[in-house]
Amino acid sequence: MPQLTAELILRAYSLGIFPMANSRDDTIIHWVDPKRRGVIGLDQFHISKSLRKTIRRGGFWVTVDHDFSGVMRNCAARSETWINDEILKAYQDLYQMGYAHSLEVYDDTGMVGGVYGVALGAAFFGESMFSTRTDMSKIALAHLFAHLKVGGLTLFDTQFLTDHLASVGGGEISRAQFQKELADALKKPAVFAP
Q1: How far apart are alpha carbons 161 and 172 in whole angstroms?
Q2: Structural domain total, the chain
Q3: Could you tell me the residue range of the domain that residue 178 belongs to?
Q4: Quick check: is 126 in a domain?
């Protein structure tokens, strides 16, 4: 069985597929190509009134690519996760190569939220997020979306649609539509610069 490498993951993303394990302890990597793909249009991201109030109230700060490993470890630190050791290592390699990125949210207690994913062309493949304080993953997403717009990215792939993602503007498109949007995004110049 081929080893999961950063190069293999980048090739898979360019084809519209992504790796997952069934659990933290599962050593088998599955390649996933959903029939319906979760996406959030960069102009469709929605910030609720209550989230706006939380952002205005402050009491937190946001960094980009400050602690990629910490964000991944926090995302994997739940009872059920698809992030195994092989995935952790491969995405660390992607980060070292400049393709994987994280956005961290801190308060006086430490890191309380974050999101990570992979940028390829003008596409951003959101992998996972976490929050240990109310709304911190949504704040991470809000800052991430602002960052992606500045860099000229045009496609935000959430892979699957959850209630959490739907609440901020996420929707689903067909596999064929995703492939078309992905092909367009991969041809566009964009930059993910902290």
Answers
A1: 7
A2: 1
A3: 6-187
A4: yes
Is 194 within the bounds of a domain?
no
DSSP string, 100-147: EEEEEEEETTEEEEEEEEEEETTEEEEEEEEESSTTHHHHHHHHHHHH
In which residue are the tokens 């994280």 written? 102
The pLDDT tens digits for 21-40 are: 999 999 999 999 999 999 99
Q: Collapse the DSSP code of 154 into the 3-class scheme (helix H, G, I; strand E, B; otherwise coil) and give the result.
A: coil
- Residue 182: enclosing H or E segment and its boundaries? helix 175-187
Phi first, then psi, for residue 135 (nearest 5°) are 75, 0
Cβ–Cβ under 8 Å, residues 9 and 90: yes
Cβ-contact 18, 178 below 8 angstroms = no
Give the span between the Cα atoms of 37 and 29, in whole angstroms: 20
Judge whether 76 lies within some domain: yes
Whether the pTM exceeds 0.85: the reply is yes
CATH code, 119: 3.40.630.70
The model's confidence at residue 2, banded by pLDDT at 50, 70 and 90, is: low
What's the distance, CA 18 to chain centroid? 12
Residue 42 resides in a domain: yes
At residue 163, the 3 state secondary structure works out as helix
